[in-house]
Amino acid sequence: GLVAGYVGQTAIKTGDKINEAMGGILFIDEAYSLASGKGSQYDFGSEAIQIILKRMEDNRGKFGVIVAGYTENMEEFINSNPGLKSRFDKYFQFEDYSAEEMFVIAQSIFTKEGVRPDEAASNHLKNYFNYLHEHRDQHFGNARTVRQVVGECVKNQNLRLASMKKEDRTKELLETVIFDDVKEFEIKEDSHGKVKLGFKFGENK
Fold first, then answer.
1. What CATH code is assigned to 99-196?
2. Do 129 and 142 form a contact (C-beta atoms < 8 A)?
3. What share of the chain has pLDDT > 70, as a percent?
4. Second label for 50, Cα 20 to 30 Å away, from 31, 66, 72, 134?
5. How far is CA 102 from the centre of its chain?
6. Which residues pair with 67 in a beta bridge?
7. Taking the domains of the chain in order of start, what are their residue ranges?
């Protein structure tokens, strides 16, 4: 991170990161956090922004800066300081993954884990990703959500296999994610109609 908890430390940390980026790129994810909030945290973030802007001017052409984050938050970030708006003049917006692409990503992660979902599990996950995509908001998790889902599925499979006798764990069972491993992912809505990940921790399956 660029922001420190004490006066003066933010300048040092930010300067060190910029020095490391010389000849390359300084990438700042969730950059809007530097311009959000109130009180000391905001002051430290503002200090980091001022240092970055000054070094960009003083070291023009010696390093690049990429700031990233959710679209609406980044618009607020860029508009929070006239210097940001004048120096960051190229914008790239990445579209959300489609439900089909989310499932393809899930399949890729499953493969890396050495398993594959069977037909029932695949259909359930496709429906789940489709619903999440249709009801997504500006904080939609994209691949991060997929990783969470796959990680939970693999954990469920491991727990299910651990409860079986060793001699019953065939190669096919070890390599297959079944419906029981994914059924906890239910389509849920809170009182405001927003979709929540349907993890049912601690329940018997």
1. 1.10.8.60
2. no
3. 84
4. 72
5. 13
6. 28
7. 9-87, 99-196
| Residue pLDDT, tens place only, 95-131 | 999 999 999 999 999 999 999 999 999 999 999 999 9
The 3-class SS string of 40-99 reads HHHHHHHHHHHHHHHHHHHCCCCCEEEEECCHHHHHHHHHCCHHHHHHCCCCCCCCCCCH
- Measured between alpha carbons, how far is 111 from 75 in angstroms, rounded to an integer? 37
Q: Which CATH number fits domain 9-87: 3.20.20.100, 3.40.50.720, 3.40.50.300, 3.30.565.10?
A: 3.40.50.300
pTM for the model stands at 0.71
Q: What is the pLDDT of residue 92?
A: 92
10 Å Cβ neighbour count for 139?
8
117 has which bridge partners? 177
Q: Which residue bears the tokens 């790129």?
A: 25
User: What does the alpha-carbon distance between residue 178 and residue 148 come to, in Å, rounded to a whole number?
Assistant: 17
Computed on alpha carbons and rounded to an integer, the radius of gyration of the chain in Å comes to 23
In 3D space, the residue among 177, 182, 180, 181 whose CA is nearest the CA of residue 124 turns out to be 182
| Tens-digit pLDDT profile for residues 125-180 | 999 999 999 988 877 889 999 999 999 999 999 999 999 999 999 999 999 999 99
